[in-house]
Amino acid sequence: MQNKIFHYVAHQNREVELKEIAEKVFRINEGPEPLIKRTIKPIVGSDSRFEFSNGSGVILSELGREYRTLFNMTFVAVDCETTGTSLKRDKITEIAGIKIEEGVIVDSFETLINPGKYIPDNIKKLTGITNSMVTDYPTIGEVLPDFVEFLGDSVFVAHNYHFDMKFINVALYREGMQQIENTALCTYQLGRKLFPENKKHDLESLAKKFGIKNDARHRAGGDAAACAKIFINYLKRLPEADIFSLEELVHL
Predict the structure, then answer these.
(1) Both 50 and 84 in a single domain?
(2) Whose CA is closest to 130, among 204, 217, 203, 219?
(3) Where in the sequence is the domain holding 16, given as residue range(s)?
(4) Cβ(76)–Cβ(97) under 8 Å?
(5) Whole-prediction pTM value?
(6) Is 201 a known active-site residue?
């Protein structure tokens, strides 16, 4: 109950009247105002994330403002397609990033990459990416500077993120560039923790759970967009799970 109030107040960035909390959070649209105050005020007053303003409303306390930083952070959902699963032998053929701010998708990065080697038939069948498709596209060395700039210091989000981050860091190492050390989150692992009742936590199953349509499965842009939308649904779920900071989310 308190978490729902926090989630609402944190996103308003202003003083919020108790009556507004009653209407917007609890859908209480009727009843005398004194009764609403007697109902809502004790709930708010018992939570150190809030404090009462000079008026009759509620604002975030210093502690509450610290918790709010999670919602102010920038996340980038990343996906890579490769010629295979070997970090030693295989190369990236496509990379995409979807930037999330304040729980909303705000920007994207996507490009095919010429891996400089033959794409096996089983990979072509899985991804639809052929050798002829990537011929005129830039090499990974040409793409990485732009991708690293796009990523910046945001939180790296991916489904089974170890795969994507390792491939990117191996590519950076080969190009003599500094490897990324961004804080990383895995939508697969988070899904297992936030929704333990689900039997499956693969990208396709989670997309179906949230009503997310992915017409470009096994393509970097399609899977990164699906991952981003799944993560946005996770952000909405966090207050109910008592998670309000990046540290708590990483710990989870």
Answers:
(1) no
(2) 219
(3) 2-69
(4) yes
(5) 0.78
(6) no
